[in-house]
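Sample 3 of the quickstart, ligand NAP:
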Amino acid sequence: MTATVIDGKQAAADLKESIRQEVAQRKVKGLSVPGLATVLVGEDPASQSYVKAKHRACEDLGITSFKIELPADTSQEKLESVVNELAHDDKVHGILVQLPLPKELDEERVLNLIPLSKDVDGFHPVNIGRLAQKGREPAFAPCTPSGIIYLLKKTMESLEGKNAVVIGRSNIVGMPVSLLLLRENATITICHSRTRDLPAIARGADILVAAIGRPEYVKGDWIKPGAVVIDVGVNRVEDDSKKRGYRLVGDVAYEEALEVASAITPVPGGVGPLTIAMLMQNTLRAAQMRDA
Ligand code: NAP
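Result:
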């Protein structure tokens, strides 16, 4: 079997096009222009490039963006006052505090200050709590996990009753994607670094989500024939043939997986592009919710 390659770039482009049109319509109707504020503390190059990409996407879709950059030695009080100000600014519909924060800062206290209605990253403890509760709806769900569900729904007729194995239990990916899969009525197994006999558990998966952060860790013979594989990992491995000296690989041994799975997301070009598209969608929704 040669797996279908799930084209995250195209899926994200399609989603962004529909957002672009919605934003343009809002302008025609005289409704508010969605606005996203990002708060970046420090000069971590990866965080800087993620924030830059988010602003580029805003510009591309007609969403207003506000960029707040603070030095690495910003105090807790200062950061909290910046977030509070954004919380009260009517032009700002969504607030994104780029994580991780420098370790001296209390991340949970900062996230708590973001109003639920502006929590477009979906990491406010109340939104995460609602995600975990039956019959409750979070205002927003985290972007990468939402992107994964979006791709799965495009790929599979139904997720209901499927055995889903998620490798990784982080606050950002593993745990929220497990909760979202549960909401789709899949049966979930969450694995982590202390899981015993991971390959055997993975082999039971109709849907296998790898969010580990270890290059090509999941081997082809861990995959059930016909499974749908979502590779969230983004890992740099040395490669002298590349100008920059490295290439990006996922958490799944891609070439091996192609032979066994029915569908798989590539790295790059799979889950990654959906993350920003989902953030743009959440920002548009935040503006729509304000109107309602
Ligand atoms: P993380 O916070 O480091 O979490 C990694 C998870 O993997 C942890 O739950 C850990 O278990 C588990 N793990 C580590 N080694 C393991 C092993 N040998 N066997 C089984 N489980 C193991 O990472 P993350 O933030 O979730 O990110 C995971 C990957 O996704 C990274 O490569 C990251 O770059 C990528 N990512 C991509 C996007 C995107 O938009 N494409 C977004 C976010 C993250 P314990 O809990 O027991 O430590």
